Amino acid sequence: MAIFAPFEWTIATRYLRARRSSGFVSVIAGFSFFGIMLGVATLIVVMSVMNGFHKDLLNKIVGINGHIFLQAADTPLTDYNTVAKQVEKVQGVDLAIPMVEGSAFASSNFAQNGSGVLVRGIQETDIRRLPGIANNVRAGTLDGFDTAGGVAIGQRLAENLNLRVGDKIKVMTANGAQTPFGVAPRVKAYKVVAIFEIGMAEFDGIFVYMPLPEAQAFFNLDKQASVVELFLHDPENIDAVRGKIEQIITRPIIMTDWRERNKTFFDALNVERNVMFIILTLIVLVAALNIISGLIMLVKDKSHDVAILRTMGATRGAVMRIFLITGASIGIAGTLAGFLLGLLIAENVETIRQFLNQMLHANLFPAELYFLSRLPSVVDPRDVATVVIMTLALSILATLYPSWRAAKLDPVEALRYE
């Protein structure tokens, strides 16, 4: 036996149609439909954009910075090649790259202002394997990087200093040569051999890569490395890999990972995502409340019809199911429309952003503020399912009280003054 009888569907469908006597009720139903549709679509789009932020930032931050960082303890890290070979044997470790890192100031003859930079010394074989650099060279080449005597810089840094491949960049550090009068700053000009674009404005504006021996000489780190960076196959499975590394390393080492270095940043991103979900859920809740008010008005408007149905033999359950179908239809239709609209926008959010930028002659997503050069979006089926199920549940719950009121209607009282 079907849960809903055919005549219940017929009557519920009639109540959803606009008539002169109940036009206002139909207007409320229409607003409820659009409220639910917009609420669902907005939730799906916002959750997808937040997921895109998390994924892109994680890929770009750890794609160029590594997942685990090994630094010297007790003695200088002169055996960096041995350490790198040891940890590359650990299951789950894709790359182990020794580096020299140091802060410096960069300038050029083509720009009035300079810029603070992070200089990284790296071997040619390693920079070619570095995920964030090797596949994102926009000008020049990394061929012969060890012997070219030049540096690779980010696209934004090149723009700020008006540099092109072949031009020279001046790099200055306060930790230069020791003199009788103290430590003298060291300034050296390097030819730009490659320009890369990671896609994250923060990194494209500060990184300068130079050959490892040159960086060791520049920062007075004779045959030493500052850090050995490890790139894992699965960054989320970091704890298991850390345990294996601790067992295989034969020298004192300080080990940190990307979660510790970026904990505040990603925690803030998760908090923002959860708060946005709660705030936008209120849109759906308001639309569900509109369903309640619309159904209550519909019950009062149709009290005469309900009384006649009861006298003709319709049970209270049948009356309740009629109004359940009426209210739930609004919620289900709005949820389905919002689901389709949300997926459509989420899949084309970057195209929409570019269109709005051109139409409004404004930059709605400045890379300097949001770190990324494009608006990312990743649709997570679990998030979409959560939004759809929550909205359907709220919509159905919103119909229970008005439907119960309609079922409790006394036909004698409703027809007393007819």
From TrEMBL:
It is found in: Cell membrane. The keyword Heme does not apply. InterPro entries: ABC3_permease_C (IPR003838), Lipoprotein-release_system (IPR051447), LolCE_TM (IPR011925), MacB_PCD (IPR025857). GO terms for cellular component: plasma membrane protein complex. Its main location: membrane. It comes from the Bacteria. Residues 33-248 form the MacB-like periplasmic core domain. GO terms for biological process: lipoprotein localization to outer membrane; lipoprotein transport. Residues 277-411 form the ABC3 transporter permease C-terminal domain. Pfam families: FtsX, MacB_PCD. The keyword Transmembrane helix applies. It is a multi-pass membrane protein. Keywords: Cell membrane, Lipoprotein, Membrane, Transmembrane, Transmembrane helix, Transport. The chain crosses the membrane at residues 24-50, 275-299, 320-346, 384-401. Belongs to the ABC-4 integral membrane protein family. LolC/E subfamily. This is Lipoprotein-releasing system permease protein.
